[in-house]
Design a protein that fits this description.
Blueprint: H1 2-11, E1 22-27, H2 30-36, H3 54-64, H4 67-78, H5 96-113, E2 119-127, E3 142-150, E4 160-166, H6 184-201, E5 209-215, H7 223-234, E6 239-245, E7 272-277, H8 284-299, E8 309-312, H9 325-329, E9 335-340, E10 365-366, E11 376-377, H10 381-400, E12 406-411, E13 416-422, E14 428-434, E15 442-447, E16 453-457, E17 463-471, E18 484-487, E19 513-514, E20 524-532, E21 541-547, E22 552-558, E23 563-572, E24 577-585, E25 588-597
Parallel strand pairs: 4-5, 4-6, 6-9, 7-8
Antiparallel strand pairs: 1-2, 2-3, 3-5, 7-9, 10-11, 12-13, 13-16, 14-15, 14-17, 17-18, 19-20, 20-23, 21-22, 21-24, 24-25
Helix pairs in contact: 3-10, 4-6, 4-10, 5-6, 6-10, 8-10
């Protein structure tokens, strides 16, 4: 046992870093660059008919987002044979150059139809292979993202909102710049989604600027997204949120699929939509995921014919996978990934791999009657339209809403919590309470507040989380504040080690508590949460997973932070039995909980 504990402690000290491969990013349009910086006159881009009512906009998105329009864009994107980042840039019909010029021309059409309100630009940058990216040699060192920018109606708050999807494609060989790589699911679907929202949303007026970005180089290591994120960061551009859409319209489960994903081959899911976000349960990214779900539920779920079930995932992406949102979260911006529930493949490219993702088989569909026209699509365009609606509605509401507020909570008696709000004076506030799940348990709306302190109920569970949003006169809420963690039976102490003590206090003295994992029982993966009143054990903590007979199953290093630290434990499908999760500090067990595996 001592040997196992020593090995667990050694694993706590592991880590790693990486670099990325893009330099000298620049926005080719001075006009667009000034808009991104908030240096423009809003009236220059005013709509002929100003529409700002949130309900009108939500219903307009519902009525105007078109499955037919999305299908037409998918057909065109499929026609370029390959959109590999290193493919032909001079042909008018084939390769990444033709594809990006086609996207740009479509943005031009949308802008012309809206009084030239959309402003277009390339984001130009230089590519060089690195340890972060795939090391493809690539002859195209100069690369481009395509941006369409809808200027906000004010410049007091210069924050922008971004929706992105990558246009580049690949087949089994990521460096193959001449072979067929239709990339219909990954990621013509995300590109078409971004384009459709630019077409529809450009008729409305929003307070904040919205950027519709079609990126290149995702398959080479998020190259285009890093170029965009790093450029905006270098210019000190504030970003409210980023929605990344990647693999957005398929409903079929392949023989393989990256966890957590679909359960078995041939399963169909046209209802669920996954939102992946970085961090523990009270990260800004998780808060944004909850906001997306709340706005859809309250604005649209009663109006749509087929509701979408939004799943807030534990991880920031599928296991071992990544996406363009991570280029933003890497440097502290709030970003999430929205992805279909079922995936046709895990992109493993292993011997015997026969699924469609990351292969020549990721095409638009089949010609079943031999007339030369694809009549059986691998993408469900109605499902893609519903996912487009979810995205557009969240962008619209946050671009219309007021500024984010802060709160300062304190526990009262009789299951009430007092919340001080800053700044005070909004027409209404919303207070979100969450206990055990990724989603909010309750969201209270409080109106007629004449002071900056209000009280709301809290759940009977010992640990819960609270956050708040301001509501404007139109009924639109801001993004929610950072969550506070509160406990009704545990005093969290912020103590430093006392060198005068002959025997240091045990870890539990610092308010350290291993919470029951959730879900429990579970299949495939579960979330393990640790509360702590200090970060002094940050490099000295591990989780040890053992079977009921004491055999070590897994050791997981934990960078224990003050507040909430979380670990997703992935054990795979089809496992049954009882396991013990032990919290180790300095190689010694502190607390343990029982975990139950139950195949679904």
């Amino acid at each position: 046992m001592k040997k196992n504990l020593l090995l667990a402690l050694i694993h706590c000290l592991a880590g790693g870093i990486g670099a990325f491969a893009q330099t000298n990013p620049s926005v080719t349009s001075t006009v667009v660059n000034n808009i991104l910086l908030g240096n423009y006159t809003p009236s220059t881009y005013a709509a002929s008919t100003v529409i700002t009512d949130p309900n009108t906009i939500s219903e307009g998105l519902l009525n105007n987002i078109s499955a037919d329009s999305l299908k037409a864009d998918l057909v065109d994107l499929n026609s370029f044979y390959t959109r590999n980042m290193f493919s032909d840039t001079t042909s008018t019909t084939t390769g990444i150059g033709a594809a990006r010029r086609w996207v740009y021309s479509k943005f031009q059409q949308y802008s012309a139809a809206r009084g030239n309100r959309l402003q277009l630009s390339w984001l130009k940058f230089t590519y060089a292979p690195s340890t972060y990216s795939s090391a493809c040699a690539g002859t195209n060192s100069t690369q481009y993202n395509i941006m369409a920018v809808l200027p906000g109606s004010q410049t007091t708050d210069k924050s922008i909102i971004i929706i992105e999807g990558h246009v580049d494609s690949r087949n089994t060989n990521n460096c193959d710049e001449t072979g067929s790589a239709p990339g219909s699911g990954d990621n013509a679907t995300g590109t078409a989604l971004v384009m459709e929202l630019a077409r529809v949303m450009s008729q409305y007026t929003f307070k904040n600027t919205i950027v519709f970005s079609v990126n290149t180089g995702e398959e080479e290591g998020l190259i285009g997204a890093h170029a965009l994120a790093n450029y905006l960061s270098s210019q000190k551009v504030l970003i409210k949120a980023v929605n990344n859409n990647d693999v957005s319209g398929g409903i079929f489960c392949g023989h393989t699929s990256s966890a957590p994903s679909c359960p078995y081959y041939g399963n169909i899911d046209s209802i669920d939509l996954r939102i992946f976000s970085l961090g523990n349960v009270n990260s800004a990214d998780k808060q944004w995921a909850r906001y997306i779900k709340l706005e859809y539920k309250e604005q649209l779920s009663s109006l749509v014919k087929v509701p979408t079930d939004l799943q807030i995932m534990e991880l920031d992406d599928r296991v071992g996978r990544g996406g363009d949102h991570q280029a933003f979260t890497d440097i502290g911006y709030t970003a999430v990934r929205l992805t279909q529930a079922n995936e046709d493949g895990d992109a493993s490219d292993s011997v015997g791999y026969i699924d469609r993702q990351h292969s020549i088989r990721d095409s638009l569909g089949k010609d079943t009657n031999g007339d030369g026209i694809i009549d059986s699509l691998y993408t469900d365009v109605d499902y893609l339209a519903r996912n487009t609606l979810v995205n557009g509605n969240s962008l619209a509401m946050v671009a219309l809403g007021p500024d984010t507020i802060t709160l300062n909570p304190s526990v009262l008696t009789a299951n009430r919590v007092r919340v001080a709000l800053t700044p005070a004076g909004a027409p209404a506030y919303r207070i979100a309470i969450r206990s055990a799940t990724n989603d909010w348990d309750s969201v209270y709306t409080i109106t007629g507040v004449s002071v900056d302190t209000i009280t709301v109920p809290y759940p009977t569970s010992t640990t819960f989380y609270i956050s708040a949003a301001a509501v404007d006169a139109s009924g639109t809420e801001s993004q929610f504040s950072s969550e506070y963690t509160l406990s009704t039976d545990l005093v969290i102490l912020d103590l430093q080690p006392d060198t005068t003590r002959p025997t240091p206090p045990p870890p539990t003295y610092y308010g350290i508590q291993l919470m029951p994992n959730r879900p429990n029982p579970f299949d495939e993966s579960t979330l393990i949460t640790i509360n702590s009143g200090t970060d002094i054990f940050a490099a000295r903590t591990c989780l040890l997973i053992t079977s009921i007979n004491g055999s070590v199953v897994s050791r997981i290093p934990v960078s224990l932070q003050k507040g909430v630290s979380q670990v997703v434990y992935n054990h795979g499908y089809g496992v049954a039995g009882i396991y013990i999760c032990s919290l180790l500090i300095d190689g010694l067990p502190v607390q343990s909980t029982k975990m139950i595996f139950a195949p679904r």
